[in-house]
Amino acid sequence: MKLTKERIVDAGMATFAETGYHGLSMRQVAERLDAHAGSLYYHVRGKEELLALMADRVCRHAYDAGGAALAALPPEATWREAIDAQATALRRSLKQHPGGALLLADSPSALSPGGLSLMERLLKTLLDAGVPAEHCGIAADTLLSHVTGFVLQEQTEPQAPTVTAETYADLCARFPLVMEQLPRLGQDEKFRRSVGLLCAGFETLRSA
């Protein structure tokens, strides 16, 4: 099969899901494609460009998913619902790409069209909501970082250790506030509430 940039990105995504940022190499990608490493450089200049292309693909998928989610909202939807739709779509897209959150967190920052599109649309949502322009950049970056971090934790969180009744009682006695506040919600509800808390903070900027 002919070697193309799209096939190289496909192989890069699959390899990255197994090895992470530091383990990814052009040689491994070439082996997955049953090709010589040197032939990859006719299409991709190196590992850094490959990572940028991979991150851009994830972002473009997330942008398209967010567009569909926004289109499905009723005309009377609030700005908070628009932000929730974009955040939820990004989370879903990252989870659909094994290692997607790790890719966005670990890969070098790049001015990719996909990533810029996500930020541009979110900035417009915040501006239209009345958030002052000087705060929109930090607000949008905080939200995107939260979503990436949330999914990264979901995809790497180890299995909860077994705790005996005696140990649990001891923890409750020593750390009553922590144990009382330990999340007992499902991940979907926890995510929804966390985005709601961020929106509540954005609301104060609108009021100011």
UniProtKB/TrEMBL annotation:
Keywords for this protein: DNA-binding, Repressor, Transcription, Transcription regulation
Entries under InterPro entries matching the protein: DNA-bd_HTH_TetR-type_CS, Homeodomain-like_sf, HTH-type_TetR-like_transc_reg, HTH_TetR, Repressor_TetR_C, Tet_transcr_reg_TetR, Tet_transcr_reg_TetR-rel_C_sf
Positions of the HTH tetR-type domain: 2-62
Pfam families referenced in this protein's UniProt entry, alphabetically: TetR_C_1, TetR_N
Name this protein carries in UniProt: TetR/AcrR family transcriptional regulator
Keyword Transmembrane: no
The entry's DNA-binding region: 25-44
Superkingdom per UniProt: Bacteria
PROSITE patterns linked to this entry: HTH_TETR_1 (PS01081), HTH_TETR_2 (PS50977)
Keyword Coiled coil on entry: no
UniProt organism field: Streptomyces sirii
